[in-house]
Task: structure prediction
Amino acid sequence: MNAIRALFLRLRSLFRKDKLDRDLNDELASHLEMHIADNLRAGMTPAEARRNALLKLGGLEQTKESVRDQRGIPFLETLLQDLHFGLRMLRKSPGFTVVAVLTLALGIGANTTIFSVARRPMRYPDSDRLLMVWETSPDGSRSTVSAPAYLRWRDQNTCFKQLSAVRRNTVALSGNPPILVSAASITPDFFATFGLRPEQGRFFLAPEFRPQGERVVVLGHEFWQNHLGGEAAVVGKTIRLNGETFSVVGVAPAEFEFWERMDVWMPLALSAGELNWQTRDLLVVGRMKPGVTSAQVRGEMRALAARVAQESPETNKRWSALAQTFYEALAGPGVLLQMVLLFAMVSFVLLMACANVANLLLARASTRRKEIAVRITLGASRWRVMCQLLMETFFLALMGGALGLLLAVGAVRYLATLPVLQAPGLAPIEINRVVLEFAAGLCLAATVLSGLVPAWQTTATKLLDHVKAASSTVHGDRRQGRLREGLVIADLALSLVLMVAAGLSVRSFIRLEQVNLGFPSNGLLTAQLSLPAPRYSDAGQVRAFYSQLLDKVRAIPGVENAAISTVPPMSSALDQPFLVEGRDPASPAASGIANYQVISADYFRTLGSSIQKGRSFTEDDRAGSTPVVIINRRLEEKYFPARDPLGKRLLISELVPGGNGPSEPVALEIVGVVNDVKNSRTTEPSIPEIYVSYLQAPWTSEYLLIRSANRMEPLVSALQDALRALDPDLPLTSVSTMNDRLSSSLAGRRVVVALMVIFAFVSLLMGSVGLYGVISYSVTQRLPEFALSLALGAPQHAIFRLVAGGALRLLLIGGALGMVLAFGLARLLESVIFGVSPYDLLTFATVQTVLLAVVLTASYLPARRATKVDPMTALYYE
Result:
């Protein structure tokens, strides 16, 4: 208690001493101005007048020095004085303080929000050592990996400590009602790759990875909590998946997610029958050895892929390998570039905020010339005065940072609820220690960017100029005026750049929503079905089930048509290699890869796509008849550019991809050509597709497509009843309309575009406020000039034109600089915008028009005030 009391008394004495110093400064200022003015009137030179005045004030100055000598001012006391004085000065100017704090809060809050989204750490230990490894097709796109390729990589690489593989699937969990759950089959070292320990029980043992090993599963944590109630004694219990019984041996840790949320984990036994080069369905992830770099891994994997291509040219020619960091693989290049653009935009917003605050500080400095003159005249060093001014700016940045952090907390809480920003393996979006440190760094950066130039300019004038400024009515000098105008020009240039980026993004998003998908999306419902292998192991059973289901669905009132397909539109299907019969295998036009779709006869009619050549499937295209295939226009243009494809045949090594073991090539006759349908992303052109009939190639996992003009809710209920009548244990999942699927596919871009528009609006607001401040301040300085002009007969519109012309001059300079920067940014945007030229004339013209309107609006009130000044004011000033 004594120590606290002593500290309190010490702080109080410092504040009292600060008050004594202020009183002494005020008295010195008054006497100094009076003596200098008298000496100048007596005919002394300015230097003599100042020297004589200081000699006359020697006694008072000695008094002040004696006070300082008695008390002493160590560094801590000086700092506390600066803190107290800075707070007092800001408290005396509440309007200035509020505007400056809000301006910095917007800049700091925007940067903190984007940083918290982008700088999410991975949940895994030493995640920077984790790499995803892909095969790359001849066209350069990445692909999942075939089992033989994975085994070669695992056995022959020297860079990975562990290299594991995952095969994703869906299985039916028996219950009332049954549900479809996500499953992953993994190789023995998968959990070790991520350095995981089970939350309950254990992971898999080596004997369980044998082809005929025990049926065991490890449960995902969320599945354990939601479907088994988090039962503590879950280990040893059994669950039924696809009609078979599995024993639970463990539970994965809560924070673990891989690629997507997995409900159950199973051992993956790569038997000889599965070693098919053309079935690429494995996700491969590895942990690098200590001391190995990702560049070394990329080089070694390309070399291994080249060796495989030489050994098996018929299936791996022109295929290579690609290694990516886990974060890069999850996000993809488009998302990474969008985050870079968002970071650039919020950085520009912060720069504009700092420029506006610097402008405010420069304007405010003109009202403090008397104070600065006294401080420097009495011997304060330039560095000492700059430190005091920077301390005031630091308080502004600190308060702006605190308010910006509150804004960021609210924004982060909202963004954390958006499904599109959730990614497996990444920590949740939150304000953590790293984000707080980043915000603190922004406060320091804002202090320097906002306060250094005004502090330097304010203390740059010679002592006599300070004294003259303090004893005159001049409110600023030409140099500070040019600096303020330069800051406004920078504001306008950056604002134009951000508005162009936002405008191009908005135009691109509108084009994405209007893109031709190849089919009408309204009134289309999709749902997923997966037939468990034990009950539907026979191809005849699969055909009979889907035939009966389609008949029942078409009988539902309001259903116009129904069909099945392996995947719905806007989804990636299975890549299927093929050969064009009769062509030289060495020719590039002899082989390729296409999306493989297993469909029913009414698929194209249900989808709303049209057959361009030939025919669609019929009920006669069944097992035992001639195998047939329908191709899309893209495949026809690429492989049959100058001939009719009808009647030609494609050779496919296995009719049902994913089956056990490669089959002899099957020749499928082309009987139709259909319009292109967007395969996966609206931003990408359609790729080759081949369609086969489910009657000839039955597939256990299919999507049901239903075309109906009725409301979807009653339709879903009727659909479930129809399915329950056929198989009460079969779950119906992923039920959604096609419009919802399209909306989900654009959700990420929608969020990015919305953020860009918000930042562009904030930048426009800052630019207009900064311009208004400079024009208003300039008008205040020139009021005597305007009043005198009006008194001498100048028309009001001439004064108005003079003020508005100054604003337009700043716009022309800032707009020219902004256009140069915007053209450079447009080059970067070219890879992330769709359907719009990066130099889109409409966007640039609209931005210039909006900026012109804002500038005219910002200059209107100051210009109008200049025309309304009382001409008698001229006589008063003169």
About this structure: Residues 3-24, 59-73, 469-476, 656-662 have pLDDT under 50 and may be disordered. The chain is about 55% helix and 15% strand. Residues 2-41 form the longest helix (40 residues). The radius of gyration is 37 Å.
